[in-house]
Design brief:
Low-confidence stretches: none
Catalytic activity: a ribonucleoside 5'-phosphate + H2O = a ribonucleoside + phosphate
Radius of gyration: 19 Å
Family: Belongs to the SurE nucleotidase family.
Cofactor: a divalent metal cation
Strand order of the largest sheet: 3-4-2-1-5-6-7-11-8
Mean pLDDT: 96
Shape: globular
Structural class: alpha/beta
Organism: Roseovarius mucosus
Pfam families: SurE (PF01975)
CATH class: Alpha Beta
Largest sheet: 9 strands, mixed
Helix content: 25-40%
């Protein structure tokens, strides 16, 4: 198996090293793992692509490249430049430092990379490590992902739904905020929503007198709807959420026929 890995935390991020370990075990001794990751952190860029400017790409080592672009850019670089002569069988993105459950998935560059791969017709999975009081002080804060990443991916590749239609399914996996020993299993889960927990801004004035705005986050351990990704994560389960890039609100189409 040929696997392309990327992330949004940057090419030197510890989560990417965890993903490289998982990907090599998945690819096997006869497989290949290629890395094309952002040269610098790109958290929160979503599915952004560098449409109006070029990006520099540098070879760091054998099958390892850094690109001055977004995670989605890195997927494009991997598919159409670095691996253009033999495309990957699978794209893996992560392991993100922090969860990409609930509304976080909309902003996530980690998820954006998997989305771009799916749009390009390549099976893809985003992987993220949730943090909380039970795991944030561990020597290995990626322990749950490191231990359970490979068996979760193997099960998903074997039992998951993989479509080749226009908006093919890709997957968003979140490992719970617990040590590996505290993980209870895997749950198929829908995307949740943390009510009244969205991003905001906080103004600051620099010594120069210029006014700046810092984007602010919110607590991540608030409950979401039962059975959702964040809900099962907080109960100790790995969430696996099938996603598509199709943004149509299909449930509203029939009612909207009234305007015709």
């Amino acid at each position: 198996m040929r696997i392309l890995i990327t992330n949004d935390d940057g090419i030197n991020a510890p989560g990417l090293a965890v993903l490289d370990e998982i990907a090599n075990a998945l690819a096997g001794p006869d497989g290949e793992v290629w890395t094309v990751a952002p040269a610098f952190e790109q958290s929160g860029v979503g599915h952004c692509i560098s449409y109006t400017r070029p990006m520099m790409i540098s070879k760091m080592a054998e099958r390892r490249y850094a690109a001055e672009g977004s995670p989605a850019d890195c997927v494009l670089a991997g598919l159409h430049d670095v691996m253009k002569d033999a495309r990957p069988d699978l794209v893996l993105s992560g392991v993100n430092r922090g969860n990409n459950a609930a509304e976080n998935a909309v902003y996530s560059g980690t998820v954006g990379a998997a989305m771009e791969a799916a749009l390009q017709g390549v099976p893809a999975v985003a992987l993220s490590q949730y943090y909380g009081p039970a795991n944030r002080d561990l020597d290995d804060t990626f322990e749950a992902a490191r231990v359970h990443g490979l068996p979760t991916l193997k099960r998903l590749l074997d039992k998951g739904v993989w479509t080749r239609d226009d908006y093919g399914i890709f997957y968003n996996i979140n490992f719970p905020p617990f040590p590996a020993s505290g993980v209870k299993g895997i749950r198929a889960a829908h995307q949740g929503f943390r009510r009244d927990m969205g991003f905001g801004v906080e103004p600051h004035v620099a010594p120069s007198g210029r006014r700046f705005l810092w984007v602010t986050g919110a607590p991540q351990n608030e409950p979401t709807s039962p059975g959702s990704d964040a809900d099962v994560n907080l109960q100790g389960y790995i969430s696996v959420t099938p996603m598509r890039a199709d943004l149509t609100a299909h449930d509203a189409l029939e009612a909207l026929k009234a305007i015709e």
